[in-house]
C-alpha cells in the first residue's frame, strides 16, 4: 500500500492563494467601496516611490472637466462621470460594450495628505495624480535633568 501525500488546503492551494491575493490587492493601499453601482469604473495603477504615491487612471473618452479629485482625511477620492455620446444618424446601435455612468474611487494612503502639493495631469485619456509623501519626523533626544 502506497502513501499518498495530501495538502490540507486542497490540491490547488486555495487558502494560500486567497491570502496572497488579499495582500497583493490590499497593501499598502486599500480601496473603499464605490458609492455608485454598476457602470463605468476606470482601471487604475497605484505606484509608491521613495518620495511619492502615483495613481494613474485610464479614462478614455472623458475630458478633464468630467473629473474631480478631492482629499478626505487620509484618502484621495477620484470621481467623475463618463457621459454617453451618441449620434442619431442612420440606424441605431445594435450592440454596445462601452460602459457609461458616474463613478467614485477612493484610495487610502495611510498618512495625512497635503492637497496643496498634489499634482494632476491629464493626457491621452490617462489621468496621472502625484501625491508627494511628507517627510517623516526625525527623533530628537531630550536631555534629562537632575541626578
Task: Outline the structure in words.
The protein has about 150 residues and is mainly beta. The protein contains 1 helix and 8 strands. A hairpin with a 2-residue loop joins strand 7 and strand 8.
Give the CATH level 1 class of the domain at 29-84 and 100-132. Mainly Beta
Largest sheet: 4 strands, antiparallel
Q: Tell me the number of strands.
A: 8
- In whole angstroms, the N-to-C terminal distance is 78 Å
Q: What does the radius of gyration come to?
A: 23 Å
Bin the strand percentage. 25-35%
Question: What are the salient characteristics of this protein?
Answer:
about 150 residues; mainly beta; four-stranded antiparallel beta sheet
Summarize the structure.
By secondary structure, the chain is mainly beta.
Question: Topology of this structure?
Answer:
Layout: H1 14-26, E1 30-32, E2 44-48, E3 52-58, E4 67-72, E5 75-82, E6 101-108, E7 119-123, E8 126-132
Antiparallel strand pairs: 1-6, 2-3, 3-8, 4-5, 5-6, 7-8
Amino acid at each position: 500500500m502506497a502513501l499518498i501525500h495530501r495538502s490540507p488546503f486542497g490540491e490547488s492551494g486555495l487558502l494560500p492563494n486567497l491570502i496572497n491575493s488579499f495582500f497583493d490587492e490590499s497593501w499598502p493601499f486599500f480601496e473603499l467601496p464605490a458609492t455608485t453601482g454598476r457602470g463605468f469604473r476606470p482601471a487604475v495603477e497605484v505606484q509608491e516611490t521613495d518620495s511619492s504615491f502615483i495613481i494613474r487612471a485610464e479614462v478614455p473618452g472623458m475630458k478633464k472637466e468630467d473629473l474631480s479629485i478631492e482629499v478626505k482625511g487620509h484618502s484621495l477620492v477620484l470621481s467623475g462621470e463618463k457621459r454617453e455620446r451618441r449620434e442619431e444618424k442612420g440606424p441605431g446601435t445594435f450592440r454596445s460594450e462601452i460602459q457609461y455612468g458616474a463613478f467614485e474611487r477612493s484610495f487610502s494612503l495611510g498618512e495625512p495628505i497635503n492637497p496643496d502639493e498634489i499634482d494632476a495631469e491629464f493626457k491621452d485619456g490617462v489621468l496621472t495624480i502625484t501625491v508627494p509623501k511628507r517627510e517623516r519626523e526625525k527623533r530628537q533626544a531630550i536631555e534629562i535633568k537632575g541626578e
